[in-house]
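Open question from group meeting: does this chain pack into something compact, or does most of it stay loose? Before anyone orders reagents, we agreed to write out a predicted structure and look at it together. Recording both the input and the output here so the notebook holds the full record.
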Amino acid sequence: MTTVNERFREAEKLKDSGQVDAAKEVLISIVGESPDHVLSHLTLARIYTQTGDHLAAVKHAEEACRLEPNEAFNFTILSVTYQKAWAGTQDTRFIRAAEDAMARSQSLG
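Structure tokens returned:
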């Protein structure tokens, strides 16, 4: 039986080789079975950002921060995700959210 970390490494290899949809499916499976796997949420946020599904990207980045509320790196990723969501949607609510997430990252760092 493969572990969550082994499956995550498989998803990373798929993503790195350009098989983004296959990687996404593995990651979705991981968070379905292990909803507290932060790295899978962060990677899904990145994949969804790259594919233009900004609301899904934000959801996963926010979940990573909810799971690890004292990890500055996660809030930096959340800020970047919000910035890219704004760029992709022009929805101004993402600007303040990006600023708030960066301020949280800096206060934790």
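Observations to bring back to the group:
The chain is about 80% helix and 0% strand.
Helices lie at 4-16, 20-33, 38-50, 54-67, 72-89, 93-108.
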